[in-house]
Amino acid sequence: MSQSAPPPPQPQPQSHPQPQPQPADGNPFAQQQAPSPYAAQPGAVPPPPAPPAPPRGNVAVGLAAAVVAAVAAAALYGVVIGLTKHEIGWAAVGVGFVIGLAAGRLGGRNPMLAVVSTVLALGSVYLGQLVGEAMIGADQLDVSFSELFFQHFGVVQDAWKEESDPLTFLFFAIAGWAAFSGAKKAAA
Known about the structure:
Order of helices and strands: HHHHHH
Helix content: 55-70%
Structural class: mainly alpha
Strand content: under 5%
Largest sheet: none
Shape: rod-shaped
Number of strands: 0
Number of helices: 6
């Protein structure tokens, strides 16, 4: 009896997957769409559009904001001096920084804003010191603040000149530095 040998195994044709075309940048996931986490609902109202960005880089708006901040800071600084009967260095830093911040945030990176902020800070500290001097003088003279400040402004300035010392001018320098650096940092 003879047995026949089994036929040799025939190679099976292998199916090679067809390579998919790749994007030019080599990222195979670049053309896939991310699935939406929420399915669209019938009758749904789309969300409102995002609010517009605040104006930035407008020098005129930055200058106006700095002037408003300077007047408000001068009044507040003057009230602090009038109530405490002392000049406070940290308040002068705050005056300068608020002015510089307002100018830089709304005005942008214009270098003129830092210089103008410094000048406004000096004027604001001076005006605040005059308001404080008038508040102290009004208490001592038993007159109203508005009468002393508006009708006898020369007397208030003379009193400020007599009481100013090197520390007074240091507060000017501190406020100017804070305004300049605040405007630069806020615009960055």
